[in-house]
Every structure is written in structure tokens, then in C-alpha cells.
Amino acid sequence: MKIVFFGSSDFSVPFLEYLYNAKHDIAAVVTNKDKIAGRGKKIIPNPVKVFAISEGIKTLEIIKLDDDFYKKIIEVDFDCFVIVSFGHIIPRKIIELANDNIVNVHPSVLPLLRGPSPIITALLEGFQQSGISIMKINENLDEGEIYAQSLFRISDYENKDMLEEKMIKIGAPLLNSVLELIDKELIETYPQSGVPTFTRLFDKDDFGIDWSSGSKEIVNKVRAFSQEPGAQARFRNMKIKILSMRPADDYKNYISLDESCHSFKKGEIISADKLNGIIISCGKNEAVKLLELKPEGKNKISVYDFLNGYRVKTGECFY
Hints:
Elements: E1 2-6, H1 12-21, E2 25-32, E3 35-37, E4 42-44, H2 47-54, E5 59-62, H3 67-73, E6 80-84, H4 92-97, E7 102-106, H5 118-124, E8 129-136, E9 146-153, H6 160-183, H7 215-225, E10 231-235, E11 238-247, H8 257-260, E12 269-273, E13 277-282, E14 286-295, E15 301-302, H9 303-310
Parallel strand pairs: 1-2, 1-6, 2-5, 6-7
Antiparallel strand pairs: 3-4, 7-8, 8-9, 10-11, 11-14, 12-13, 13-14, 14-15
Helix pairs in contact: 1-6, 5-7
């Protein structure tokens, strides 16, 4: 099958690589132009473009799906469009050009979690299961009919990076199977069923930890934002990314009888030692146990290295 692949993120690359290794003819790759970011105005290479160029695949870099792009894509000989984490709404003109052969990978069990951030949202809201959908694109956001879905459990310890890896391991072979069945005209779509829910884009204001929240809510935020962009806090006027933590349901075992009568401030360190690490008070009379973090401008470190390097004491606070 001759495929035009649309994708722009790290999540897109393993799907493209899987289809390429499965001997599909990748007629072209459509991806965003490289970004210029940071104070140094450095060019951030697009990971999809990097893979495509390394394999000699025709690459079309775009800012938007406008008439200039349409003139280029009509010159490509293809059977099917495949879209994975592309970041653009596909206009009717492009859908019609594909003659209804336009397949999208969406990392949720549709109609749940339509929109741009299903993986982050599933973790933020503490979902215990999710899945991946291979669907047909229409003009409306994530409303197309389904080719196939796979459902799986989300473990309590999984973060965004882990869940993305699971989505890829399950989703790439599923996408390939669906494409092979489409090629042989052996698969049909079915309508989405159930009440839809929707996700949104997140920005830097969403990354900050609110220590007045309960322990599960705080831990879910850390899981959802994972290594990048990372849940944010401040300690001694220093920005910290909290990369890993757990609820400290038994935190009262780590404090003295006198301290158990003390009303801790939200974000206050109530235990800091080599045996138990760092335990921080939060809302609902609960606490969280810090495991891994990244001080601003430094590499990520374990809580024990943080204890030793910064001589952390009880009574200090995260904000």
C-alpha cells in the first residue's frame, strides 16, 4: 500500500518506522517545519523529518494545510493517508482528495477523550484503563467511525512516558493490521458509541503543583507531565521539576507523637532522612513521598542525592 504519512512528534516516529519496516511504500511524509525556540533561537529538528530523510523518504514540510500544500500533495501517487500525532485539523479538501482512505491513530478509547491531550488527561484524571483507536477521519474532531480499538489497564505507577510506550507497542501493529485489511477490502468501520468527553491543550500555568490538593491529585499531575514538561514546584526560590512521587498514606508512622498534633502547612517537609526520603504535607490531611526530581539547570537526581546535596531539613517548604 502506498501511504502518505502525516505526523510531527516523537510519538509519530515509531508508527512511521513500523510501517516502513513492514514494507509499505511510504510515498511521502508530511510534517511541521522545524521549530526555532529558546533564547539562543536554536532550530529544534522535527523527529519525523529526521527519520524520513534518513530513509530517503520524500518530505513535505508545512506550516498549515493551505493551497500551496494542496498543489504539492496532488502530485503524489498514494492509496491512503495515515495520521499520527500531526497537530492539524484535516480540511475537507484533503479528505476528499484521499477518497475516504484517511486513517488516524488516536490514543484513547473513543468517544472518550477526544481532542489534543488524551494521554495526559487520562493520567490527570486518574483513569485506571485506556486504549487506542484506529479510526477514519472526517471533518469533525475525532468523530470518525472506528476500524479497531484495543483496551488496556493503566497501572498506578505508570507516567506519560510509560503510557506512550504502551500505546506505541500496541498501536503500531494494530495500525499495520488495519491497513493490510483495508488494502484487501476485508474491514469495515463502525460508529463510535457512548457519551463523548473532550481534552484540551495545556500550558505552563497547568504545570505548577498545588500543595493544597490531595495526594492522589498531586501524584497524578506528576505522572501526567512526566519528564517533559514536568510538574513544577519551587524550593528555596529554586524552580524544581518533580519527576516521580507516591502517596505517603502511612506518613504518620514517620513523625513523632508531638509532631502528629502539629498542623502542617501545605507543602511543608514533615520528614527528611536517608531512611524515608522526603515526605511533604499536602491537602486533605495527606502527604506525598518524593522520589525523583530535577533542580533548575541540573540533571535529574534521586531524592537521596537531593537530601545530601541540599541538606534538606524538616520544616522547610515546597511552594
